[in-house]
Amino acid sequence: MKKICVTGGAGMIGSCLTKNLLESGFDVIVIDNLWRGKLKNLSSIEKFNIDSQFFNLDLSKQENEAEVLKILDDCDTLIHLADIVAGIDYVFNNEYDIFRINNTINSNTFDWGVKAGVKKLIYAGTACSFPKDMQNGLNAVLKESDLYPAEPESGYGWSKLFGSLELNYLSKKHEFQHTTLMLHNVYGVNSDLDPKRMQVIPSLINRLIDLKEGEDLVVWGSGQQGRAFIYVSDIVDAFVKAVKKDSLPEIIQIGPGYCTSIKELAETLISISEKPVKIKFDTTKPEGDKGRFADYSLAKSILGWEPKVSLREGLEETYNWVKKEKHEN
Fold first, then answer.
1. At what angle do helices 95-116 and 65-72 cross, to 10 degrees?
2. CA quadruple 305, 309, 315, 317: dihedral, nearest 10
């Protein structure tokens, strides 16, 4: 039985991935400092034992090396999800800290994985690492070959691109299997609902649920900007397929083959809520890149992967989950 370590495993992607891997017969352990992740995301997993399979550690701290090496000692695969990320306001107001901490997390994690002798390392990259000039509208399609010459829009995008570069260089020196899955805009259950860090879908849902009669749904930007939204279970499927594949390219893009405008997103969420709400666009707020989506032909040919969950279906699942979470808290 393969033993897999998932960093950031208490977060949205990590907890759903941990559950899937366990159900697929893998032995799984999780490292997470709970900055965004929640223990309850793991405690709800039937086959997961918090006491023996979860480790609360900050991977940016060099003093944790010995403990991490001990944890990774008999792991075949390391899936590295841990990073500092949040909504657009947080990302652009904390660029230096995000850049510095993410680079430190990546360097430590990759180095410790090699020292521990893991045979495969799968890293979560981001579509934010693509050049900003190529993310210019709802019809902007991205290929893996478009990453360079590099010019990400944010410190977050640069930090994730540096992580992919470092992993590639390290693998040439130590010869282990590796890949970077470049993820587009992931959403779904177990999202971070912290008001300071929420990303666009949980943020809009949260605001929509809290609206009082006669209030408008405030949406940042013009609404004409777009994102390639992908439901968390589809992302998990890509990681599991990558775990099972012996030979992988350096980069595989994981995202849908279309872009959804924020206006359409807001309208769909209003329809799901069944509330008589109007949209008010706040153009004084940042809206980030204008839009992009994935040419996922490489993921399809290499992993046999393609999205399965429609946007409407995924939004309904997420809306009902956020509503439940708010009711319970």
1. 50
2. -110
Q: Phi first, then psi: what are they for 106, rounded to 5°?
A: -65, -50
Kindly report the length of the chain.
Answer: 329
What is residue 196's three-state secondary structure? coil
For the record, the structure tokens of 312 come out as 């409407």
Joined together, the tokens standing for residue 137 give 């509208």
| Residue 87 clears pLDDT 90, i.e. is over it | no
Handedness of CA 53, 58, 59, 63 (dihedral sign): negative
Query: Dmax of the chain from CA atoms?
Result: 62
DSSP letter at 94 equals S
Residue 155 sits at φ, ψ, to 5 deg, of -60, -30
> For residue 19, what is the enclosing H or E element?
helix 12-23
Tell which phi-psi region holds residue 254, choosing left (phi > 0), alpha (psi between -120 and 50) or beta. beta
Question: pLDDT tens, 305-316?
Answer: 999 999 999 999
Of 101, 108, 110, 8, nearest to 63 (Cα)? 108
pLDDT above 80 (res 262) = yes
pLDDT surpasses 70 at 329? no
| DSSP letter assigned to residue 290 | -
